[in-house]
Structure prediction request, 803 residues.
Amino acid sequence: MPKDASGPAPTGAASSAKQMGQINPWKYDTFLWTMSVLVDLFFREVHPRGAWKVPRHGPVLFVAAPHANQFVDALVLQRVLRMEAKRRVSLLIAQKSVHGFIGWASRQVGCVPVGRAQDAAKPAQGTIYLPDPVNDPTLVRGVGTDFEKEAQVGGMVFLPSAKGRSGASVDVAAILGPTELRVKRPFTGKLAMEQLTARDDIDDSGNLTNPEANGPKPGYEGTKFKLAPYIDQSRVYDAVFSCLKSGGCIGIFPEGGSHDRTELLPLKAGVAIMALGTLAEAPDCGLRIVPVGMNYFHAHKFRSRAVIEFGPPFEVPPKLVEMYKNNQRRHAIGQLLDMVHSALSAVTVSTPDYDTLMVIQAARRLYNPTGKKLPLPIVVELNRRLARGYEKYKNDPRIGNLRESVTEYNKQLRYLNIRDHQVEYASLSWPVVFVTFVYRVLKLTVLSAGVLPGLVLFAPIFIATRYISHQKAKTALAASSVKIQGKDVIATWKMLVSLALAPVLYNFYTCILAYMVYQNRLWGHVPGWVPLWAVFLAGWVIFPAITFAALRFGEVGMDIVKSLRPLALCISPTSSYGISRLRERRAELAAQVAEAVNTIGPEMYPDFEHTRLIFDAYARGVSTDVSNAFLPNGGHSPGSPRPGSAHSGASSPGGSFSSNTPGSPGLVRRLTTTSSRAIPRNESFSNIGGAPLFATRPPSRSRSRSSSVGTGLAGGSGPMAGFPVSAFTTLDSKESFEHANRKIREAMRERGELRRREKRRQSLAQVQDEDDESSSDGESGSVVSIKFGGAGSGDAGEGKKAR
Prediction:
C-alpha cells in the first residue's frame, strides 16, 4: 500500500475540524428541533438525570458510554444538552460515516470527522503466524505476504473474529521484510493464539501451557488478516485543543464504534490525550470532564425508553498534566483513563453478559414490593446498585443459589409467555378476572378502530424499516469485531428509513386524494369552491395526524394485548393452578431477594438504612403504597452530590483515594481498569498524531468481563471509592412522609428567615452608608464594624426580641 494511502482521511478530518469551534447556532438549533420530532416519536420517554451538574460556562469534555445506538446516541445527547443545560457540543464522528444525509447532518451540528484504522483496514494477501510465540512473541511471519508494499509502520494488523469472539489487533512497530514484521506488543487472548499457532496447549487466558514446545503447530501456515494504514491525527487534536481552550464543548464516545454488549468496552487513549493536551497548552482554561451514561431499555425497539445520566464534573489533577508534559505520557494517559472509566461506571449499568443483566432486572422487580411502576431514574439506579452488588458477591454461595432460583423463575415466565408484573393477576378472584378480561377485550376493540387506518396507511414504512434495519444489522455484524447481534444500528436505520420514506408516502397519498377530488369531488363530499392547493395542505395535515393517532392508540392497545394472556390463564381451570403456584413462587423469591439485600447491603454501604430507594416491606411488616416508591436519599436525589462530598463542583471522581492532589485519584498503577491496561507498555505516545481517538482493539470475552464497574465502592478503596454509592434501598409508611414534610417546612421557614435577615442587613448597610457620607474620618472605623460585624449583633438583637 502506498505511504500516502491514508492521506485523504486525515486531511478531510482536519479541514472539517477547523470549523468545529464555529458552530452556527441557527443551523444547530434548527436541526436539533427538527430531529427532536423523530426522537419523540421513536422513544416513549427520554429522561435526563443530573443535567444540573453540567457546567454552564467554560470548556467541557463530555465522555459518553455505552455507545449502544450508533448515530441516535449523538442526536439524543446533543438534544438533551441543548434543552437541559443550554450547551452546544461538537461530537467526534467516524470519517467513514461522513457521507450522504449523515454527512450533511453532522455538518449542521459541528461534528468532527476522525479517521479510524479499523475503517481503513483491508484484507491483505497471504497468511501470518507466530514463528516463536514463547521467546519472541512480537515477531510475525507471513506466507505469501508482501509487507513492504502493503504494511506501514504505525499501521495496524487485524485478526478475524470467530464464533462470537472478537478478533485481536496490534500496531506495527517495524517492517523487517516482505514476509516479516514486528508488532509493538504481543497478541493476547485464546482466539488470537489459536489463529496464530494452531496449538492445542492454549489455556483460556491465551497462555501456552507447554512453553518447551516452541513454534506453531507443525505444518501450520497461519491465518488470514487485515492491514490498516497509519493515520495522522495531529491536526484533529490541534483543532480539539483550540476549541476547548476557547471555552467550547467537545463530546466523544471513548469506546469507539457502537456496539450491543452489556459491558463497557476498553477506552482508547484519545479522550485522555484531548484533556491532557489542552491543559498542557492552557493550564488555567478550567477544563472539566463530565461523564454521561446512555442507559437504554431495549435501545433498538420502537417506543422504548432511555435515561441520560450526567455524573459530577471533575478536573484533571495537575500532577497528571505535569507527567504528560515531562515525557511520562503513557502513565498520565493510563491514570486519566482510570478516572474516566470509574466516572462512567458510576452512571451506567454494566454487566458481564446478557443473562446476568436479565437476572439483575428480575431481582430489581422482585425487590419492589409495591408492585407499582417506578420512575425511570430509580429503575436505573436500582439496576446499577444490584449490578455492583452482584459483581462483588458473585462468588458468594448465597448469591449463586439466588441467581439459579431467579433464572428458573424467568424460564417459567417465558414458558407461560407472561411478564413478571402480570403474575399478580393470580391473586384476583375468578369473577374479577373475567370482568377485567371482557372489559379489556372491549377496550381493545374500540382502540382498533383508531389504530387500523393508520396501520394500513403506514404499513409500507413499518415493513421497510424492519427489513432494511435488520439487513443493515447483519452487514454491520459481519464487518465488526465487537458486536454481538448488530442491534446497535437498528434504531438508526429505522429512523433514517422513516425520515426518507414517510414524506414520499404522505405525498403519494396526498396526490391520490387531490386526484379523487379533481375527478368527482371525492364522491361529492368536497364542495366545489375548495381549491386543489387546499386539498394538498389538508392531506399533509390529515395523513400525519392519522399516523400519530394510530401510534398513540396502538401503544395502549399493545399493552392491553400483552395483558390478555395471563388473564386467560387465570380464567382457564386447567392453567389457573400453575399461575397460582407461580405467584407463590414469586412471593418466596421476593422475600429471598429482600433478605439477601438486607444482609449484604450493610456490608457494602455503611449508611444502608438511611439511603434506601425501595421500602423494605418484609422487614417491617407494613403495607406499601405507590408514594413509597422513592426516597430523596437523605435530602438529596440519588446520584446527586452530598454536602461535603468529593463530587460537588468540579471535583474528580476519586476523592477518597487521592494522592497529592485533594479530590483526585491516587496515582497508583495497581488500581488500573481494563481501559488503561489495554495501553501497550512500550507505547510512549510521544507522537500524539499517531494515537487513535477511537478504540480499535476490541476486548476478548474474558477481558471485557473483568471489571467494568471498578473495584472500590463506598467505604472501600479503588477507583470507585470516591463515588458516593448509596444503599439498594424509600420512605416507609405515613409517619416517614410526615417527618419528611416537616423537615421540608422547617427548611422553607429557615430560608424565609434568612432572606428577611438579609433584607434587614441591606437596609442597615444602606443607612450606615448614608451616615458615613457626613461622618468624620474617626467615625469610619465604627461604620466599617457595623457593616461587617453589625449583622451578627443585629441577628442577636432579633434573637432577643424573638425570645
DSSP finds 23 helices and 14 strands in the chain. Residues 1-18, 618-671, 695-734, 767-803 have pLDDT under 50 and may be disordered.
